[in-house]
Design a protein that fits this description.
single chain; mainly alpha; 2 domains; three-stranded antiparallel β-sheet; two-stranded parallel sheet; 5 helices; 5 strands; 9% strand; rod-shaped
């Protein structure tokens, strides 16, 4: 083989070897980055759970102080308490009959204000942006999904 061809072949072999080394390094780096991303995602999820727990503790503690003062509900406070109680149940996404939901509020120790407590409760549900009807004339409601 002429010297010029051998020199070209040697250069190409060297370039191929360099590419192989670079590819191997990139594969290793990609694996390290994937591993790091997975660790960050796990930590983020743990932090989200921790934050949710803290919000629950703080919100629940503040709500309990208010609730200790007056167990009668009306208006936006009725809406907030009713939604919070339903969020704790699987029916929140599929729907619950308003009478059953009203009973949940009463079983939690609350009293709904007004001459007609069930009517007050139903009126507040119908005004709420966080609640939607399930079907026509079924009496069933569910919490709206947040987009």
């Amino acid at each position: 083989m002429p010297e010029e061809q051998q020199s070209l072949k040697d250069e190409l072999v060297a370039e191929a070897a360099a590419l192989i080394n670079r590819i191997e390094a990139q594969v290793e780096q990609a694996e390290r980055l994937r591993s790091l991303a997975e660790r960050i995602e796990r930590q983020t999820e743990e932090d989200r759970h921790h934050l949710h727990d803290l919000h629950g503790i703080l919100g629940e503690a503040a709500q309990l102080r208010i609730d200790d003062l007056d167990r009668r509900l009306g208006g936006q406070r009725l809406e907030r308490v009713a939604i919070r109680l339903l969020q704790e149940r699987p029916e929140a996404a599929i729907g619950i009959h308003y009478r059953e939901w009203f009973d949940l509020v009463r079983e939690a120790g609350y009293q709904v204000s007004g001459q007609n407590p069930l009517g007050t409760f139903l009126a507040q549900l119908n005004r709420s942006d966080a609640v939607e009807r399930v079907g026509a004339r079924t009496g069933r409601y569910r919490l709206r999904l947040v987009a």
